[in-house]
Amino acid sequence: MTTASKITLVRVVMIPIFMVLLLLGYRWAALAVFILASVTDFVDGYVARHYNQVSDFGKFLDPLADKLLVTACMLIFTEWGRMPSWAVMIVLAREFAVTGLRLVAVGNGRVIAAGWSGKVKTFSTMVGLCVMMAFPGYVWLDWAVTAVITVTTLYSGVEYFVKNWDVIRP
Description:
- Helix content is about 80%, strand content about 0%.
- The chain has about 170 residues and is mainly alpha-helical.
- About 30% of the residues are buried.
């Protein structure tokens, strides 16, 4: 197993720790774990590319770890009434749709790399969720973060399909 994949696995292990801390009300500790987990997303990618450790396992696990971390946080905020379920559904629908598109592409011998808008979506989502954790009690802030997450999610999802429409075109 590569070092990059080990870093990704550490991120996966951090998810339940983050959830327990946030649910028990240890907001700052949860925020620290979330930030550390988010940083490992960039570190494992750097290590994989810089040290030629790109692997199929890493290609599978890295985006899964990102989705699990972000979804865990959004579900807690939904449970607490700080994020509407329709926004979380948009995020999940985009993830399933893009994953499906990638699976169809692979079946046709093509790999769809992560696009710039997808990276912006991931970054803005992680930063936005950190802001929500750091500043609870501001409804306008929750809505602003939800709007940014929703818009970047929709934009990146549409971009993936527009750029790769030939993969599924009848």
